Automatic annotation (TrEMBL):
Pfam families: SIS_2. InterPro entries: RpiR-like_SIS (IPR035472), SIS_dom (IPR001347), SIS_dom_sf (IPR046348), SIS_GmhA/DiaA_subfam (IPR050099). PANTHER family: PHOSPHOHEPTOSE ISOMERASE, SEDOHEPTULOSE 7-PHOSPHATE ISOMERASE / DNAA INITIATOR-ASSOCIATING FACTOR FOR REPLICATION INITIATION. This is UPF0309 protein. GO terms for biological process: carbohydrate derivative metabolic process. Coiled coil: none annotated. SUPFAM superfamilies: SIS domain. GO terms for molecular function: carbohydrate derivative binding.
Amino acid sequence: MSVESVSAQGFARESRAVLDRITGSEAVQESVTRAAGLIADCIRADGVIQAFGTGHSQALVLELAGRAGGLVPTNRLSMADLVLYGGDDPSALDDPLLERKPGIAGRLYELAAPHPSDLFVIISNSGVNNVIVEMALRAKERGHRILAITSLTHTRTVPAGHASGRKLADIADVVLDNAAPTGDALLELPGGGAVCALSTLTGVMLVQMAVAETAALLIGAGERPPVYVSANVPGGFEGNLGLERHYGDRIRRPAS
């Protein structure tokens, strides 16, 4: 990659090329179709999509859970739940290595109190941090289906961070590959290193492709997809509350 590629237009060009590969790939479309099947099955079983990620993967959790045009039966799992719902002191979140400590995912799972019909969507570019793998293992042990969004390139080039030696992609029922390079950054810098992360951009594409395919499956079966309207249009907030009421405290919408 040339020095000229390290520019706004360079990132636009290179990232569009990756997006074109994703959207034009039959293998990716097959994975998206399988992911949509998991989501549709969850909704039909009166389940909730439990979305979890740490660090910048939380951007995709927010893309999936509780946004306009998105699916209503979605719940955001977060490390902050330890404080919001678990009673921990806020200082617990100051630990930059919290996601690598054993036992955290188990607590988050219990705080969410998921139903057996719930689907777990777990997002991690590397797919190796302890809390990510621990959450996937806990969900699998409890009989949940798992959809993973990860970088297969990255996860295949780094060691496992969990004592089991397993990675997120090893545990999931369906994997959506975000096509991000190892380390996530796309544009190589002169003398080493790279700049401009890619996984959020490609991850958003995969999330919305899966949501659209889910809606298509439901519509094709004569069912109405349960989707949010923007709270900033007349009647949107009130209408959304009515849709959420069916799920009660199974979906949580704390201030972001």
